[in-house]
Amino acid sequence: MQLLPLAPGRLRQGSPRHLPSCSPALLLLVLGGCLGVFGVAAGTRRPNVVLLLTDDQDEVLGGMPFSEYSTTNCQTGLQGEELRQEHLRTYLELSRTPLKKTKALIGEMGMTFSSAYVPSALCCPSRASILTGKYPHNHHVVNNTLEGNCSSKSWQKIQEPNTFPAILRSMCGYQTFFAGKYLNEYGAPDAGGLEHVPLGWSYWYALEKNSKYYNYTLSINGKARKHGENYSVDYLTDVLANVSLDFLDYKSNFEPFFMMIATPAPHSPWTAAPQYQKAFQNVFAPRNKNFNIHGTNKHWLIRQAKTPMTNSSIQFLDNAFRKRWQTLLSVDDLVEKLVKRLEFTGELNNTYIFYTSDNGYHTGQFSLPIDKRQLYEFDIKVPLLVRGPGIKPNQTSKMLVANIDLGPTILDIAGYDLNKTQMDGMSFLPILRGASNLTWRSDVLVEYQGEGRNVTDPTCPSLSPGVSQCFPDCVCEDAYNNTYACVRTMSALWNLQYCEFDDQEVFVEVYNLTADPDQITNIAKSIDPELLGKMNYRLMMLQSCSGPTCRTPGVFDPRYRFDPRLMFSNRGSVRTRRFSKHLL
């Protein structure tokens, strides 16, 4: 379908013309596989869906206002009345946490998931999992580079035609709208440049490459538009808000719609809107139990972090934490504007709104200053709020979900037969509707392929090649052999994480998060060997799974059956898990 150019005149900057639409009669022909519960045949207008995706927003360390955030976040070394006053100032700052409107308008009006995970703690692999509903070993995006399949020609040819927005458009008759950051290498000249518009999008308003707030280029339906540094017309979060409101004003009223709005916040460079640049001046990164301690009994990459951190590193990460919160205030404004516009147009009661992030983030945990990529809760756990038809307000679900479930859930809302997809995830629509006696998963897979530099970092001459992200103070956040895979398990009796590294040690980390929620103590050498063997086997099975086999019962599921014979190949040797060095 040819996309129309922007309309001149009275529309706000970046607004779409009326998009091509189907007549009701033609729409019935298009909807063959998408009638389902909400179908036209049942006389019910099909629900709309909005997916709000932030960039690098954690859940564990105060990224959402419902996260625990201790008053120990204030500066240490104070005593008596001075300490009391500092606690008071911190409390007052925390009463103005970011995203309070988001919590009220989405979380309190629907369901908050307290156990939502990503299958890879890095932007491009995680976003690819959202779009495809697949684990990284099935969509083959392993890092943020073209060589790692991030928005590559291979991705465009093999995966993009089968994303859930493409199915919504081609099979379900939805008008589809995208605004914001797509994949980190989108717009690269070697992958079609900004002229490339992925299949399935009726309207395309995508950022070139990685997150920025000013001085960026957008692809407007395949045509480049440069933005400068004038706040009133260029601040990206506000630009995304405006174009989203315009879409709601000028879209077709004959088709349901899907909107995906992907903000730059709270990703670096953490540029807040002018009115928010002085917010949270007395807020500091959380000083939880794993802050600024040595990663004893962990993988060598964690152990190499300098402990205690330097004062300059602590000041840097505190400033980063504060600025991240500042950028989220504009996201909060975006959410409020969007919900109010949906209410004004009469669409709110027939619209599902999802709010989540592509991965978490850490600020000083195990003396790692700032980044993501690691296997721990602060990097792999994300916020997930959902409101919509049939969802009771003020609900909290502890069910284990992952971002590979977003596509299947949204397709389920559209009435599409999920058996026709090749997705690894599963629909959590029954959870949203409050289904009882629901059989659900007990584990998810987390996998990451480490990256390193082939040469020594000139700013850190004492370091050998093979490491990367060595900032600040030459503390490295990644390396070639920071390649790992984990089974994250949650059941009535167990809250466990089992991880293996692809290195010379074949290093193993295991955590009992019931007893040790901060993941300080690696129990790999003390846990029951039989259980360790079962977890190893389960990890091998998940790393080779595809579609339905990714949804088989986990070790602590009553339906689980362990067959040790499957651990041996036809030659009789023990099967070992293999990490692909290049999955393209």
UniProtKB/TrEMBL annotation:
Belongs to the sulfatase family. InterPro entries: Alkaline_phosphatase_core_sf (IPR017850), GlcNAc_6-SO4ase (IPR012251), Sulfatase_CS (IPR024607), Sulfatase_N (IPR000917). The lineage of its organism: Eukaryota, Metazoa, Chordata, Craniata, Vertebrata. This is Glucosamine (N-acetyl)-6-sulfatase. Keywords: Glycoprotein, Hydrolase, Membrane, Signal, Transmembrane, Transmembrane helix. PANTHER family: N-ACETYLGLUCOSAMINE-6-SULFATASE, N-ACETYLGLUCOSAMINE-6-SULFATASE FAMILY MEMBER. GO terms for molecular function: glycosaminoglycan binding; N-acetylglucosamine-6-sulfatase activity. The conversion to 3-oxoalanine (also known as C-formylglycine, FGly), of a serine or cysteine residue in prokaryotes and of a cysteine residue in eukaryotes, is critical for catalytic activity. The chain crosses the membrane at residues 21-42. GO terms for biological process: glycosaminoglycan metabolic process; heparan sulfate proteoglycan catabolic process. The modification 3-oxoalanine (Cys) is found at C123. Residues 79-416 form the Sulfatase N-terminal domain. The gene is GNS. The keyword Transmembrane helix applies.
